[in-house]
Design goal:
Blueprint: H1 9-35, H2 45-53, H3 72-86, H4 88-105, H5 110-122, E1 126-130, E2 148-151, E3 155-166, E4 171-180, E5 187-193, E6 199-201, E7 215-226, E8 230-231, H6 237-273, E9 275-276, E10 279-280, H7 285-313, H8 319-344, H9 346-349, H10 362-369, H11 379-391, H12 393-396
Parallel strand pairs: 1-4, 2-4
Antiparallel strand pairs: 2-3, 3-7, 4-5, 5-8, 6-7, 9-10
Helix pairs in contact: 1-2, 1-3, 3-4, 3-6, 3-7, 4-5, 4-6, 6-7, 6-8, 7-8, 8-10, 8-11
The structure holds flavin-adenine dinucleotide.
């Protein structure tokens, strides 16, 4: 139904390519990824490397290693929407590898960039981004961080624990936010080699959904990090983390749109084919109105994330638009998935029908969709960001 009005040709071309890549390299594994229990061994390498082989991990980067696009943020978010249409959890994996981490790598030394970006793009190596700790996540002030980097003559020694870290069971590297000094009130972002002595990856978290987006603690016990691995300036890590999170939020807004679109398409199909009281379910005005509203909201959410991404591609600030896109797109995804389950009745609630083996994805989607409203800044935090701009920080705090 949607018409492209302002999408650049390169983005339209990429979307077609991404859709084909998702169909051939992700779809065959997606339902298994959605159901399998998290473990160190269950990282979805097949889909991860398949999407990388199709060039989708090159999208955020400059040529010659990267795709060298004029609108890389818009392109990366468009790919995220396409992946989320098939698998919300793989969109989370992609967001970490291709949005959060690449933004932190813009602050890495040229030697590290030359070494690591080809590895990231190839899908040979997984990367993580870590700000969250057991006692803090929404509130990322430096004083709240208990992961501490103590300065030495050659760099830093890091001790602490990060929680819920996407891709950590498979990653070789993490962009890690720590407090700079035990009594410091500033944060530093470090690129940490996860094969270093003193690093342990915890037991994977067993979650309601997003089973393909495997999370675990990263525990650091006196881990030595060379001074050359500082991302940005020492003591300025919060800015690096927040600039990555602004981009990540637009990506999660795009993931919300992909999930909402998939749920709407499933619901519409069911409204056309399922009969109740002698008519197709779609003859009921109740569902006509609800689906029309969802279709309208999807258009709005897609425009919102595209606008936020374009602002960044033009070198402008997009903090407010990113917050709007994240909160709006992910709340919408929850609303549409809930209605899609409702429209399918018991079939929407079933993992598999015993007698027929029939299975729609909605049980998986219903489990997956909730986290979109929580991670990368809970939606209340996004509303707070908007309210601060709207009303003024002198009033909102
Ligand atoms: C699948 C998954 C993947 C993740 N991946 C990563 C990762 O790769 N790296 C990483 O660092 N972290 C990651 N996280 C952590 C995630 O970002 C945090 O869980 C999220 O930021 C919320 O933090 P919290 O769980 O500590 O909740 P809290 O900070 O305790 O917040 C709890 C609730 O409080 C409410 N709240 C918070 N702030 C406000 C406010 N200002 N106003 C009103 N209400 C508010 C919200 O409803 C929020 O849900 C991941 C989590 C999951 C589940």
């Amino acid at each position: 139904m949607a018409h492209d009005v302002w999408l650049p040709e390169e983005t339209i071309e990429l979307r077609t390519r991404a859709r084909k890549a998702v169909a051939s390299r992700l779809a065959p594994y997606a339902r298994d990824i959605g159901q399998r229990e998290e473990s160190h061994e269950s990282f979805p390498w097949e889909a991860f490397r398949g999407l990388a082989d199709e060039g989708l991990f090159a999208v955020p980067f400059d040529a010659p290693v990267g795709a060298g696009l004029d609108h890389p943020m818009l392109a990366t978010c468009t790919v995220t929407e396409e992946i989320a249409y098939e698998s919300s959890s793989m969109a989370g994996v992609y967001d970490g590898q291709c949005i959060l981490v690449p933004q932190t790598l813009t602050c890495a030394s040229s030697a590290l960039r030359e070494r690591l970006i080809p590895e990231l793009v190839s899908g040979r190596t997984a990367f993580s981004f870590a700000t969250t700790e057991p006692e803090t996540s929404s509130d990322l002030t430096a004083r709240r961080l208990s992961t501490v980097a103590e300065r030495t003559s050659t760099g830093y020694v890091v001790t602490g624990r990060k929680r819920w870290i996407t891709n950590s069971v498979a990653a070789d590297w993490v962009s890690l936010l720590c407090r700079d000094g035990k009594d410091g009130d500033r944060a530093t972002m470090l690129l940490v080699d996860l094969t270093s002595p003193g690093v342990t990856i915890g037991t994977p978290d067993l979650k309601l959904g997003h089973r393909g987006q495997i999370t675990a603690d990263i525990v650091l016990d006196h881990v030595e990090v060379p001074a050359g691995n500082v991302l940005g300036e020492p003591g300025r890590g919060m800015g690096v983390a927040l600039s990555a999170l602004v981009r990540g939020r637009i990506g999660i807004g795009a993931a919300g749109v992909g999930v909402a679109q998939a749920a709407l398409d499933l619901a519409v199909d069911r409204l056309r084919t399922r009969h109740v009281f002698g008519e197709p379910l779609g003859a009921m005005q109740h569902w006509q109105y609800r689906m029309a509203q969802h279709a309208t909201d999807i258009e709005c959410a897609r425009s919102l994330y595209q606008k936020a991404a374009l602002l960044l591609d033009r070198g402008k600030e997009a903090d407010t638009e990113a917050a709007m896109a994240k909160a709006y797109g992910t709340r919408l995804a929850n609303d549409v998935v809930r209605d899609a389950v409702q429209v399918h009745g018991a079939l929407g609630f079933a993992r598999q029908v015993g007698a027929t083996g029939e299975s729609v994805r909605l049980e998986e989607m219903y489990r997956d969709v909730k986290i979109l409203e929580i991670f990368e800044g809970a939606n209340e935090l996004q509303q707070w960001i908007v309210a601060r701009r709207l009303i003024g920080r002198d009033v909102t705090g």
